[in-house]
Amino acid sequence: MKILIVGAGAMGCLFAGYLLRQGHDVSILEINEERAATIRSGGLTIDDGTTSSVTACPHVYTSAAEAGSADCILIMVKAYDTGSAVQSVRPLVTGKTVVMTLQNGVGNVETIQQAVPHGRVLAGTTAQGATLLGPGHVRHAGAGETILGATSESGKKHVETLAAMLRDAGIATSVSDNITSLIWGKLLVNCGINPICALMDIKNGQLLESPHLVDVMVKVVREVESVAQACGVELPFADGRGKVGDVCRATSGNICSMLQDVRAGRKTEIAQMNGAVARFGAEREVPTPVNQTLADLVLAVGHMRRPG
Ligand code: KPL
Prior knowledge:
By secondary structure, the chain is an alpha/beta fold. It has two domains: about 1-175, NAD(P)-binding Rossmann-like Domain (Rossmann fold, 3-Layer(aba) Sandwich); about 180-305, N-(1-d-carboxylethyl)-l-norvaline Dehydrogenase, domain 2, CATH 1.10.1040. The chain has twelve helices and twelve strands. The strands form two sheets. It has an eight-stranded mixed beta sheet, with helices on both faces. It has a four-stranded mixed beta sheet with strand order 4-3-10-9, covered by helices on one side. Helix 7 (about 180-200) packs across helix 9 and helix 7 packs across helix 10. The longest helix is centred in the middle third of the chain and has 22 residues, at about 180-200. The radius of gyration is 18 Å and the shape is globular. The site of ketopantoate has 13 residues, from helix 7.
């Protein structure tokens, strides 16, 4: 299967590295010239914290036109870049291409569906913990489950094939029938972990060490649960607080993606996480003061680090 991974961030590089190691034909589309050039010359390195690391050299393109068509296009850019990423790869989508998102946040599926026929859009979530140490260099800081699903009836036939491909590559993957539930479940986890760890500058596991932070996390989670209910979304687990705790433990050594962004002076995905929860809450008259405040604080940190 010919796979094109769009975005060479931590997750893009992690998935590319594992699929390449399994012998798949993997290319990366990365618009940052410097990052692309470094990966082209040095390959991908995945550090799993022990002695082993995987180094592989994918084809790396900086424009979709160079990349050519693919059987699977995996969108791994930040959620605020989904629109531009999908527009750029749209000409590469043929009758047999599926476009899959494993991104954080809400709204990615809807954005992709504006450009690609619904039957060809697959979605999923991944609880893998990965930190980008440099261009193409990832620390794999926790192996969480990846779950895939179709966004329409006709997409279902593709899901099993892709799940099997990821499993064969060493990425624990299962399939869900309810992709909306799955995405909201991941949203809850991200809302509960990411802004707190980003603002406090701590690893995921450290959140559980402070009763004060756990208290804030529980308030965030309760609000997300209320908003999900008001939106008619059934979450994939009954105990949101327990789920966030489990993910903190499973990825305890990981620096969450939002903290990585803050440290690197990059824009964060806060608007697609706690900001989105606050927006949905406002539309349905569900109060979300803690999510709104965290969203404001993360935006403020971003503005102070990146004036203008
Ligand atoms: O998805 C993540 C992220 O960092 O964005 C978690 C699950 C919190 C792992 O760090």
